[in-house]
Amino acid sequence: MTSTQTDFAALTGIYTIDPAHSRLGFVARHAMVTKVRGNFNDFEGAATIDGANPSQSSVSVTARVASIDTRNEQRDGHLRTNDFLDAEQFPELTFRSTAVAHEGGEDFQVTGDLTIKGVTKSVTFPLEFQGSAKDPFGNERIGFEGSTQIVRSEYGISFNAALETGGVLVSDKITIELEISAIKNA
28 with 176: CB under 8 angstroms? Predict the structure, then answer.
């Protein structure tokens, strides 16, 4: 990021997340030796940004569970079952912010209610502002990136298998990763 101070007041407005240029992903440890990464390919969201008073800002995101993609159809199919996300009974994951705080510089803390498999827990995403730009089509864009960890068993996702060498097949801690590009509404 540049050393100049961002004029967040100039960014005030209502934004729609551009899913074609954003990523809603996750990382889980597999077999205690590697990481499996995945995405939700079908999601939408909006943000109301009050640059002069960030605490008045808000964010909401909805992801379709059936769109889960780990680049392995058999694993994706298993993740859609009741062992994990139960896409049939709980077709969406949602996040609704309850507080936004500017931590200084380009750093923000967005706290909200994350609902997975019918269970809602408060989580905080540390987000870093990535900048703003006018794209070639005249759209005003802003970008944020960040990640946080959740404990999947707290959301009723407890499927696992013990390994002969100790440990388990899938980690209980899951990292949620956000790379967001949002377009200011006209």
Answer: no
Residue 56 corresponds to which tokens in the numbers above? 């008045």
**8 A C-beta contact, residue 113 and residue 96:** yes
CA angle 129, 13, 149 (to 5 degrees): 40
For 167, the token pair is: 């440990």
Global pTM value: 0.92
Is it the case that residue 17 has pLDDT exceeding 90? Answer: yes
Q: What is the pLDDT of residues 121-152, one digit of tens each?
A: 999 999 999 999 999 999 999 999 999 999 99
* Structural contact between residues 92 and 117, judged by C-beta atoms closer than 8 angstroms: no
Close Cβ partners of 28 (under 8 Å, ≥ 6 residues apart): 35, 36, 38, 170, 171, 174, 175
Ordered domains of the chain (ranges, CATH) = 8-184 (2.40.128.110)
